[in-house]
Amino acid sequence: MKKIRYSLLALLGAFVLLSLFSCTNLGYYAQATRGQLQILKERQPIESLLESEQTDPALKAKLESVLDIREFATRELLLPENGSYRSYADIGRPFVVWNVVATPEFALKPVQWCFPIAGCVSYRGFFTREAAGKFADDLRARGHDVFLYGVGAYSTLGWFDDPVLNTFIHRSEADLAALIFHELAHQKLYIKNDTSFNESFAMAVEEEGVMRYLASRQGGEEATRRYLESKARRKQWVQLVSLTQQSLRELFASGADPEAMRSGKEAIYARMLEDYERLKELWGGFSGYDRWFTEDLNNAKIASVDTYNYYIPSFIRLLQNHNGDLALFYQEARTLGDLPRAERLARLEVLRDEYIASLEVDQPEEPVQTASEEIAVEEG
């Protein structure tokens, strides 16, 4: 109880400090404070819920898996040992926050928003769908492409003990592990003002962690097979998005007049949808990405994919360079993060190129021909 009280005081103090930076952001920080306070208020220790006869048996089974995953994260992945993901909170809504990403109409670089603690990030989060929608509408009115999406979890970067939430507890064991490893990775290493570095690092830790976790489970072969299938589809989706980004960048750099660029942009997105239908045939009709492709397809949406995925190969290569030794990997990743931005990006590009070259030499793949370009199949 004392820890919760101190956490609340710290949060309120942070709100007061943040409010001094900009009166125009006072409302935004107020909603952020209310949202975080609600999460802290609803937390219940998982051990207590497991002991209670009133806890739903299905929820108990999920929470038992969470504790196994949490112990594995510390013991085998060397992720932070703290109170995060040792409590549970039902916040009564499907998402914990709604994020807004925006880009100019003829560009792929996301607008950034800067905060005293987290630094500059390529999205802005809200604890209510209504507030996120109003902010998104304002950006659209200014001519931006906008992507608004719900988020099941986020990290407070160790400032608070993040709980397991009803927004993601229903996921499969592999997906639960992926989320917890990802968010704990943000606590392990976070570089201010570099969203792409942070998300790609966390994604790489997530992927490596899930593979190790499933391998440790009795009968984990089938779960590993399904995870690898999902991972392969995800990589092909990312590649399709990357090809679309390349076409858009060429269009936006062409110097064409606005109407011509709008027409060209529509044609590129139409071709992307055709390519996706071909991918679905390759996947045997798997339709898990249908919603992503059919709702609000625009620059902001595909830019968000790059944010989370572009440097994953760089971090995989970094781990390979240390023969899977996570302690050395984390140490070098931190050293990399401490470099000046230009040097950091240059090093990440070198690592990315090395990883792609190693795939071409060690794992030659038959490319998948789409309506526009070739998409190489990578089942790492």
Unreliable parts: 1-23, 364-380
Order of helices and strands: HHEHHEEEEEHEEHHHHHHHHHEE
What portion of residues is helical? 55-70%
Strand order of the largest sheet: 1-2-8
Q: Give the helix/strand class.
A: mainly alpha
Q: Judging from the principal axes of the Cα atoms, what is the shape?
A: globular
Give the CA-CA distance, first to last residue. Answer: 46 Å
Q: Average pLDDT value?
A: 88
Number of strands: 10
Task: Please give the structural blueprint.
Elements lengths: L1 H18 L6 H17 L1 E2 H6 L5 H19 L11 E3 L7 E7 L9 E3 L3 E3 L2 E3 L2 H13 L3 E7 L12 E2 L7 H16 L6 H22 L3 H33 L5 H25 L7 H5 L4 H11 L2 H10 L4 H13 L2 H22 L5 E2 L4 E2 L5
Parallel strand pairs: 2-8
Antiparallel strand pairs: 1-2, 3-6, 3-7, 4-5, 9-10
What does this structure look like?
By secondary structure, this protein is mainly alpha-helical. The protein has a domain at 54-81 and 172-380. The chain has helices at residues 2-19, 26-42, 46-51, 57-75, 129-141, 173-188, 195-216, 220-252, 258-282, 290-294, 299-309, 312-321, 326-338, 341-362; strands spanning 44-45, 87-89, 97-103, 113-115, 119-121, 124-126, 145-151, 164-165, 368-369, 374-375. Strands 1-2-8 form a 3-stranded mixed β-sheet. A 3-stranded antiparallel β-sheet has the order 6-3-7, sandwiched between helices. Strands 4-5 form a two-stranded antiparallel sheet. Strand 4 (113-115) and strand 5 form a beta hairpin. Helix 1 (2-19) packs antiparallel against helix 2, helix 7 (195-216) packs antiparallel against helix 8 and helix 12 crosses helix 13 (326-338). The chain starts with a helix and ends in a 5-residue tail after the last strand. Residues 1-23 and 364-380 have low confidence and may be disordered.
